[in-house]
């Protein structure tokens, strides 16, 4: 691997001292960061044979880390997006009954392309809306796509929640085969993914064990009041025990959704609760003060996507590590972490009537070093420090909306978008340069992605919703539910 020197840039390190180096340089060797400092000093001591990239007018930051997103979503955007209820009734059956491994591969290409173009170098990919683990080929196809683009990918699979058994459909030669799978088969499928995909072709691919929620017996998408979330069921305890045993057996981390009421219930299972320093939970809307304290005491981390009333200030004050995530890319949100950070800031400031919450430096931490910590990867990712993986994003700051050249963190967080990312480096390899993704025919990938999206719509019986006229009115009557045709 050829050594590379980035020089002439403003380097925002997010290191322990939170250094910002004007006219800075970063030396990359063997896939790792080997030096960070003043540009003139590193230019003077670096071997002239080292590849040099002139970054004048550019900002070098740690590669962004998206600690929660979804596979499958990139080729189903906007279907059912006008109603959260319709959305879940659309995508979940479609994922379980109308997809093929080819769909997941082409969705993975589109997903990885969008992420890399937004400066994301490591992203979590939950396999579907409810994680689909019955067919390991699905996860392998997705992982292969991310590997071709060159991004770090955390594949998340696990039991898909209640009720059980869960109906699934596999397609072979255009012919559907429907069957039902129980908890044991879903967990076995997830373990097969861990065995096959974890560490796929090097350290770019990881697998986390991901049950749909940490307490399956209560509402899986909304907070539950204390008079509803009253006790753990046998199914709740069985899932926690089996997931804990599998995670320990394979040495993997745990990721799951959680909402108000679940954390308090989960903590009742003192032996197997899906809480702790090896767990990060997404959403966490509607948490009580007691539940915030439980997360802090157990060392559980949280991913927060804009759009829900999670007690982010209270969690931060309690010492909980919180990452801002995209939860993308559907039904109507991009894989752009810079936009997600601004949206999270605006929402929390509005809810608390406090314009000082989540200042720009904190927001940047929540999509870099804190997000890496949430994934258990802060020792190798999330900041520009010697010895860490050379995962970097370079932004072109010589644009009208990013001038004048001062206050770089403010300009980055308040003004920049993923479209300003110029070059992306992952593990010392340039995967995008001057907004051209290396090694992938992007036009062909997008064409094939569009084709497979339409094949999915045909298999799911959703074609008539592509011409839905509902956008024309400020009000809409939802008389006819969206239904997926199950083979």
3D architecture notes:
The protein is α/β, with parallel strands linked by helices and 487 residues long. It has 14 helices and 20 strands. The strands form 4 sheets. Strands 1, 2, 3, 4, 5, 17, 18, 19 and 20 form a 9-stranded mixed beta sheet that branches. Strands 6, 7, 8, 9 and 12 form a 5-stranded parallel beta sheet that branches. The protein has a 4-stranded parallel beta sheet with strand order 13-14-15-16. It is globular, with a radius of gyration of 22 Å. The chain starts with a strand and ends in a 27-residue tail after the last helix. 53% of the residues are buried.
Summarize the SSE layout with pairings.
Elements (H helix, E strand, L loop, with lengths): L3 E9 L7 E10 L2 E7 H7 L5 E4 L3 E5 L1 E3 L3 E2 L12 H14 L3 H17 L2 E8 L8 H14 L2 E6 L8 E7 L2 E7 L1 H15 L7 E5 L24 H17 L3 E5 L3 H5 L12 E5 L5 H10 L2 E4 L7 H6 L4 E3 L12 H16 L7 H7 L2 H6 L17 E5 L11 H8 L5 E6 L2 E5 L2 E2 L4 H19 L27
Helix pairs in contact: 3-4, 3-14, 4-5, 5-6, 11-13
Protein traits:
alpha/beta; nine-stranded mixed sheet; 487 residues; globular; single chain; five-stranded parallel sheet; 22% strand
The count of DSSP E runs of length 2 or more, i.e. the number of strands, is: 20
Helix content: 25-40%
Strand count, sense and barrel status of the largest sheet are: 9 strands, mixed
Radius of gyration: 22 Å
Strand content: 15-25%
So how many helices? 14
Mean pLDDT: 93
Low-confidence stretches: 473-481
Structural classification? alpha/beta
Q: How would the global form be characterised?
A: globular
* Distance between the ends: 49 Å
